């Protein structure tokens, strides 16, 4: 009797394996909103457009981070392979807002608030977490750090300042 249930379970499992790939399809939230938009839901059209704009913005930040990483002077930004994030924070934001001004994105807080945000960012990564993004050589990964600084500005700095 136990053997019968085992064979039955095995047959059901095999059948599921044949049909699951056709039942499961990965869809991003933006793709879902776009599909809803095509079905006439205006709110989904707006959400999909906002998500696409956000994705393009994230891609621009990645490109800027890569450029920053190629040009960074490690002798001014690191001590013993440890990033000086407090100094890099303002430099990254200066670079980011200089380029993004063309897209209508402007700095929203005063310089003294930026300095407080830079202190918070440095304290969080270097003094509390005791790690930061690194490359294969164990050096700070300035491309990723750039992205994290911009994320910190929008995710923490603006929220705490406003």
Description:
With 162 residues, the protein is mainly α. The protein has one domain (2-161). Helices cover 75% and strands 2% of the residues. The chain contains seven helices and two strands. It has a two-stranded antiparallel sheet. A hairpin with a 2-residue loop joins strand 1 and strand 2. The chain is elongated, with a radius of gyration of 24 Å. The chain starts with a helix and ends with a helix.
Low-confidence stretches: 1-24
What does the average pLDDT come to? 81
Distance, first to last CA: 69 Å
Number of helical segments with 4 or more residues: 7
Strand segment tally = 2
Oligomer: single chain
Shape: elongated
Keywords:
two-stranded antiparallel ribbon; elongated; 162 residues; disordered N terminus; 7 helices
